[in-house]
Amino acid sequence: MENLDLIVLRTLRDWRLQGKNAVLATVTRTWGASPRPPGSLMALCETGSVVGSVSGGCIEDDLIRRFATWETFVTAEGKARRPQWDCYGLSADEAHRFGLPCGGTLELLLEFNPDAALLTQLVRQLEGGALVQRQVDLSSGQVVLTPAERPSALSVTKHDMKAVFGPGYRMLLIGAGQLTEYLATMAVFSGFAVTVCDPREEYRRAWSVPNVQFIEGMPDDAVLAMKLDQRSCVVALTHDPKLDDLALIEALASPAFYVGAIGSRRNNTARRSRLAEHFALSDASLAKLHGPVGIYIGSKTPSEIAISIMAEVVAAKNGVQRADLDVASNKQKDDFRMKTDTLMHFS
Prior knowledge:
Elements: H1 4-17, E1 22-31, E2 41-45, E3 50-52, H2 58-66, E4 84-88, H3 92-97, E5 105-112, H4 116-127, E6 132-137, E7 143-147, E8 155-156, E9 160-165, E10 170-174, H5 178-189, E11 193-197, H6 201-206, E12 213-215, H7 219-226, E13 232-236, H8 241-252, E14 258-261, H9 265-279, H10 283-287, E15 289-290, H11 302-317, H12 327-346
Parallel strand pairs: 10-11, 10-13, 11-12, 13-14, 14-15
Antiparallel strand pairs: 1-2, 1-5, 2-3, 4-5, 6-7, 6-9, 8-9
């Protein structure tokens, strides 16, 4: 599944290149519960076509109704209208009418007929893997594109709105076993571009997950070739130190937002000792390694373990601390409870 922002911007570009009127809606602020976070995009064409979303559907329907004719996109002089603020859910009745959660309020910035040439430039840069800041002057609607050094949250002042767009999130999976099949499938549906690396012929022959790139070389070479960035993650799933360790060394030296490895607590302790002793990895580097990989949900089957791993990856992507759901600490709690229950049973 491709980066949703890129899909919205590319579709909006095509509409504008065809001479069609269109509006770009950006969620700028939310209060209380909200279906979509700040920075979410939706584009609406004069034909009624919509791409992206800013809510669960009801606000989109209202925007389609309001911008059903070309006159709503331009001024009386035929010029594009300046950016406009919209707010939904200020009252309980309005929140209920638009399907917002109780107490939810949504603020949107609407940009009318964005410049087709600048949209073309932005889409071209994003397709090339660049990180780009799009700055909108709120009084004039003028847009300026500049390179960005790192991903950042949406910024809105009384003068402008700044949004950083970049390539989609990427996931590299080391090993092509059954667990990888489940995790790759979940990652694709979660919007990640997934690459699987496994040099073992018997695993290559059995691989059949669609929409996933397969690399046959050594995993550490794959890590270097991908040029991992802050929107990349790596999960080692082979249980084979010859394949996992070298890939992990390169991944831990990269800006990847998540690096994890499958295995028991004992295996992960041994892995950390091995990486420190034989490869001189520092405590700071090893602190970035997630292992045992995943959050604690009592998972036993490959599909449930994949859910556990995917949940931890998404939490890391969203900046959520999940220490309270750590696999290792909760496994110890389970072991303690089992011992306690046994003692109580026989006492």
